[in-house]
Amino acid sequence: PEVSHVHVFHWEAGGERRPLVEGEAHWPALLHTLDRDTRFGGERYAFLEFVRGDEPQQLTEDAATLRRWLGS
Fold it and tell me: Rounded distance, CA 24 to CA 29, Å?
């Protein structure tokens, strides 16, 4: 109940950064659960963090993925 903002990223078990879209089995359900929880009464934020290779193009792709998940 204390979660208000989340840092969104996808890593392999060994810590290798992966494209966010590969986390589709987990992130949409988590984001939906946070969206439904109204105990904070305010806005929540999802921050992109730790993109693969620290590459601007990967950030763009991950942002599109996150927007798609948040829109569904």
Answer: 9
